[in-house]
Write a structure and sequence with these properties.
single chain, alpha/beta, Rossmann fold, 2 domains, 7-stranded parallel beta sheet, two-stranded antiparallel ribbon, 15 strands
């Protein structure tokens, strides 16, 4: 069994979780480093492009002020892109198409699962603020039968409540003669979202639009402190840890390099569960080293942690290796039954 066959097998026989990072939205939204660099240029370059003297910090060694401004630029850009997405202006963007393809295949995975072995539920964890996954869920739900669970309760005013993730929905036959579990996708966003808004009652409302002052955790190196100051984010991360501690679980990591120290530490603890299998899809053949460094595992051979590089993947041609990066679309095609 090659690695692609192994991935497709565990994807329909285990408790499935995805961890989606900012790399999946590149092409519509930049990575954090881009916005820190933009902030540095904003503060340290003259109008003619020459460098001011002295500069506030060395380029690539961003000071706290550049990081803070970079975080602001990121949120501004994510809000702008998400508004365009909700308004239907990004239908032809390849990032939008990749997310649509991904969600469609996640639904197909659930249909191929045996509910007598595992619940037909897939968890998608993402640290992204954008609304690409929500947009794809909305589109796919118009043609496929599944439950979207973003943790909200309520009708007109939808309030985030982590207890709602522990929920199974079934279809009862018209004569009460059978019960069939309906596939469900749980979307968990530990770092918040541009459609989350704090209410006067100190609750988080999930809106159907981009809000002016969204509840997000800035990727400024203080994620553990900020995350644990907010009960909601603490609950989201607790769900992540709980799901990985379950027997017969699998985590597929796409577009995420574990620069978030807190999630990296949680991953280190989770790997002690020998029934957990983690597949990290590296965008390039050189990405593995960075991720290993962030996970502090060096060159150690951890049996239940596997790094998938482009060179490990056979393309659709006869025995040709995958030479492009492992984008969300490429990884989805690997998961797809038959890979076609």
């Amino acid at each position: 069994m090659n690695i692609q066959e192994e991935i497709r097998e565990v994807a329909v026989s285990k408790n499935v979780n995805f961890l989606i990072g900012s790399g999946c939205s590149v092409g519509a939204i930049g990575t954090m480093g881009k916005y820190w660099e933009d902030a540095w240029k904003e503060k340290n370059l003259n109008e003619d492009g020459t460098e001011k003297s002295p500069t506030c910090c060395k380029n690539k060694e961003y000071c706290e002020a550049c990081q803070k401004r970079g975080n602001e630029l990121l949120v501004i850009d994510v809000k702008k892109v998400s508004k365009e997405l909700v308004e239907g202006k990004l239908e032809e963007n390849f990032v939008t198409k990749n997310y649509n393809f991904f969600i469609s295949e996640v639904v197909n995975l659930m249909h191929r699962m045996n509910s007598r072995q595992n619940p037909k539920n897939i968890n998608i964890f993402t640290t992204n603020y954008d609304l690409f996954i929500e947009d794809a869920l909305d589109k796919v739900s118009k043609t496929e039968t599944f439950v979207i669970n973003d943790g909200a309760r309520g009708y007109f005013k939808r309030i985030l409540d982590s207890s709602n993730f522990n929920r199974t929905v079934s279809y009862r036959g018209p004569s009460n003669n059978y019960i069939d579990e309906i596939p469900s996708i749980s979307l968990i966003k530990p770092h918040g979202s541009v459609n989350w808004e704090k209410t006067a009652d100190e609750e988080i409302e999930i809106r159907a639009e981009v809000v002016d002052n969204p509840i997000v955790v800035n990727p400024d190196g203080h994620e553990p402190r900020v995350t644990f100051e907010e009960n909601y984010f603490h609950d989201m991360l607790r769900i992540f840890q709980t799901e990985l501690d379950k027997p017969q679980s699998v985590l597929f990591v796409i577009g995420f390099s574990f620069q978030d120290e807190h999630i990296a530490k949680m991953m280190q603890r989770a790997l002690r569960n020998k029934e957990l299998n983690v597949y990290v899809f590296c965008y390039s053949n050189n990405t593995e080293g960075t991720i290993r460094e962030n996970l502090k595992c060096g060159s150690s051979n951890i049996k239940n942690l596997k790094f998938i590089r482009p060179g490990d993947i056979q393309s659709d041609g006869p025995m040709e290796k995958q030479t492009s990066g492992l984008t969300l679309g490429v990884v989805t095609n690997i998961l797809k039954s038959g890979g076609n």
